[in-house]
Amino acid sequence: MSNNKGFSLVEIVVVITVLMIILSVVVLNFGNVVKWQLNKCAESIDDNLNSIKVTTLSDSQKNSGLTLSDNDGYLYMEINDNDPIKLGVFSVTVYYEDINRANVASVDVEDQSITMSFNNNGAFNEIEEINGMYVKSIVITKGSYTRSIICERLTGKHYISE
Length: 162
Prior knowledge:
elongated; 9 strands; about 35% strand
């Protein structure tokens, strides 16, 4: 009788191969998870902008707004002074322009919260925190992935760019 107390070379190679296959699947799917989270965040902001626009158009007495802010490294969205909704760990930059579309600048939501609203004609109002400026786009970033919500000041249209 042989007293075999170890693993054979074939067993070790098989285990390492299986672990490498599992690791490669996990690494490849990590990018898809980040893209999914980014798309979900952009869609949530875009959908809530739609909701606020409809609310404003249907009831001109109601002042509706969407505020994006960063707290403890997390992006939050607050609608009409309700409890903030935690969207996740994203970097958000809001680009804005003056009424002549000449003065284009940006602000990082981590540095300053931004509130967007619509007037009773459906057009974007001025950004509450920056007088005389209107939202041009909202750029959401996570790692090397980016999504943008393009905003048309006069019509109030907004869409997620591809």
